[in-house]
Design brief:
The chain is mainly beta. 7% of the residues lie in helices and 43% in strands. The chain has a 6-stranded mixed beta sheet with strand order 1-2-20-19-18-17, with no helix packed on it. Strands 3-28-27-26 form a 4-stranded antiparallel beta sheet, with no helix packed on it. The protein has a 4-stranded antiparallel beta sheet with strand order 4-5-6-7, with no helix packed on it. The radius of gyration is 21 Å and the shape is globular. The two termini are 31 Å apart. The N terminus is likely disordered.
Length: 381
């Protein structure tokens, strides 16, 4: 075992609690006028009490519980948390309402967002996100509109979309981050999905990044592992990770200016045979021969920024327990200040898989019986 792996093993063995104050100093360099924060694999030395040391479970929304499925909540497709700690879950499989509201204590309060094609109704909601005015903005792909709800589920207004936008994230300055609108060149080997900064009318202002995927129509093959592309908004900043650049998180302000790059040394996780077998079971016999696997997994699974700009990056590395993921925590300056551990289920069809807000970490996990749970954990310092 080399020194780097030994250090990682030591951190895991002590439950990550002692790694927040004994790491190396963070190095900062400049590239083309942009600050680049270079982190090692262990957290930086910081003042006592400033490093997160663990997660304490507070409550769970469990789809196996009778009181949960009796509300009509049959799936957890994505979710959101507002400033008051209220949780909003989107369920596409539900036949009546699509949005389910739970209080800060996990108790069900109400559902809204009637299924349908009429005014105020939802056909395939993809995200529900609180804007600067405290409204809930829902992107409805099939109805091609944004629907603004109040916190009680009342419809405030609708904004029709004149182009296919599956994901629109409102920013504090009235602009939007829009992701997933495929470029029309279907004869190319790679399909390009731009991440755009848009104005108040959702018209493109600037492309912040582009994610590429092989065009199955031409290559006739599918990547078995999920792609590594992370996006989150918090603390007035936009955070973007793209596996094409390795473990590098680019930080933009709300006007789309690149203000910082966060890099971290990491140990690539191989795609082992057990993982390959588990993935292949999801496909039928005709599709399996078309599945291919890269040698290693991406550096991250998903990420979440809290309201202060601290960043929580869920990786493929093992956490404290065999079924846990390592979660790297960076402060608003881009310094790795702690490592947490949780079992995080990431759904490639969901744009939001983890949320850090109100001093808590929210995520979805899967039970042994295959049901989903939405978990709320307090972040301990």
């Amino acid at each position: 075992m080399d020194i780097k792996k030994a250090m990682l093993f030591l951190c895991l063995a002590v439950g990550f609690a002692g790694c927040g104050t004994g790491g190396d100093e963070v190095e900062t360099v400049w590239e083309d006028g942009v600050e680049v924060v270079l982190n090692r694999d262990t957290p930086a030395r910081i003042s006592a009490g400033s490093s997160p040391v663990g997660l304490m479970e507070e409550w769970v929304i469990d789809l196996e519980r009778k009181e949960v499925y009796e509300t009509g909540l049959y799936s957890i497709d994505t979710f959101s948390v507002d400033a008051g700690g209220f949780v909003y879950v989107i369920s596409l499989q539900s036949k009546g309402h699509h949005i389910f509201k739970f209080g800060p204590d996990g108790r069900f309060e109400r559902s809204f967002g009637q299924h349908g094609r009429g005014p105020g109704e939802l056909a395939a909601p993809f995200t529900v996100i609180e804007n600067a005015e405290g409204e809930l903005v829902v992107t409805d792909r099939d109805n091609a509109k944004l629907v603004h709800f109040d916190k009680e589920g009342g419809v405030i207004r609708e904004i029709p979309l004149n182009r296919n936008i599956p994901y629109a994230h409102p920013l504090p300055n009235g602009k939007y981050i829009v992701f997933g609108r495929m470029q029309p060149d279907l004869d190319a080997k790679f399909l390009q999905y731009p991440l755009e900064l848009c104005d108040e009318n959702l018209e493109p202002v600037k492309v912040l990044d582009t994610f590429k995927m092989e065009n199955f129509r031409l290559t006739r093959r599918l990547q078995g592992t999920m792609p590594g592309f992370g996006l989150t908004v918090g603390g007035g900043k936009i955070y973007i990770g793209n596996e094409a650049r390795g473990y590098e998180i680019r930080v933009f302000d709300s006007e789309g200016a690149l203000v910082r790059k966060i890099r971290k040394a990491f140990i690539p996780e191989p795609v082992d045979d057990d993982l390959k077998e588990k993935i292949l079971t999801r496909y039928n016999e005709n599709v399996r021969p078309m599945i291919y696997f890269p040698e290693t997994l991406p550096p991250f699974r998903t990420m979440a920024a809290d309201e202060f700009g601290s960043l929580y990056v869920t990786t493929f590395e093992k956490g404290r327990h065999p079924d846990h993921n390592r979660i790297d925590v960076f402060n608003p300056e881009g310094e790795l200040i702690g490592v947490l551990s949780a079992s995080v289920l990431v759904d490639t069809n969901s744009p939001i898989n983890t949320i850090a807000r109100n001093g808590r970490f929210y995520h979805v996990r899967e039970t042994e019986s295959g049901f989903k749970q939405l978990v709320t954990q307090k972040i301990l310092f």
